[in-house]
Amino acid sequence: MEGITTEQLAVIMKDEGVVFVPKRELRIPPDNQERLVRLVNDLGTAKEYLDNLRCFLLSPAIDDQFGSDHTARCEWRFEMRQQYGDLFWEMYYVRENQFRAGSWGIIGLSIEFLAQDAARKNHYHLSSHLMNILTAARALRVDEDAPTNQKMVTIHALEDICLEVLKIYSAPIVIPEDIIGKDLLELSDDQIKLHLTEPTLMDTGIGHIFAQKLLAVQTWRAYTDIFAEELAGPHIFEV
After folding, report:
1. Cα–Cα separations (whole angstroms), residue 232 to 91, 112, 113, 229
2. Exposed / middle / buried, residue 62 (Cβ in 10 Å: 0-12, 13-18, 19+)
3. Looking at the structure, do residues 183 and 154 belong to the same domain, yes or no?
4. CA torsion through residues 21, 70, 74, 15, sign
5. Cα–Cα distance between 57 and 72 in angstroms, integer?
């Protein structure tokens, strides 16, 4: 159909049972270049995967009435494209849609890469944390035949996971004052236990690196030689 606008097509699609879900207001954190340099091994690829998470957060949530009837959806999609051309294809299919399984798969692959990249940088504490986040993301399921508002509960949970990962690579961290400029080996066991349970410390990637250092100190005291490489050189943690 010639001359139809995006707004007009949206009305037609709504009449066909399509639901355009209003977006939540989200504060999507930008990359912190200084943090990225310290946290990642492959900077360029890491940025691409972090952008995948942002893309999901910015993508529309478009639901239809077909549920698990994929055959009916394909037939309807073909007919709509025949009638409304590329504009329909762009609105419904080409753009990332939060309801598409492919979008979910990209999120999983992105978090998995970041976890593996952290391990290659020897940030094992961060890598483990990201793998736990990945497990939570892959455990989410959407019942295709459920009402749209019920599906959105899961979509919002996945959005929160994306934000949690982005925060790791963007948010600043405040190192406790009793540690700044001090040799971590001189900390008492009680100080180490306290800082390892500080929740705000674990909100960022730098915090996970710091926690890894503290865990290394704990293990150093129990097994003198095992973490010699991890603790080689100066042990002062600098932000």
Report:
1. 55, 29, 28, 5
2. buried
3. no
4. negative
5. 28
Cβ atoms of residues 204 and 171 within 8 Å: yes
Same domain assignment for residues 43 and 146: yes
For residues 159 and 167, what is the distance between their CA atoms, to the nearest angstrom? 12
> How many domains does one find in the chain?
2
Do 105 and 39 lie in a common domain? yes
CB 206 within 8 A of CB 35: yes
Helices (H) and strands (E) in the chain, counts: 9, 2
What is the pLDDT averaged over residues 194-199?
Answer: 60
The residue type at 190: D
Task: Kindly report whether the global pTM for this prediction surpasses the value 0.90.
Answer: no
E strands, 128-173, are: none
Query: Residue 22 CB: number of other CB atoms within 10 A?
Result: 8
The secondary structure of residue 155, as a DSSP letter, is H
User: How many residues belong to the chain?
Assistant: 239
Q: What is the CA radius of gyration of the chain?
A: 23
Parent domain of 181: 174-239
Cβ(215)–Cβ(187) under 8 Å?
no
212 and 105 in a common domain? no
The model's pLDDT over 15-45, given as tens digits with 9 standing for 90+, comes to 999 999 999 999 998 888 877 888 889 999 9
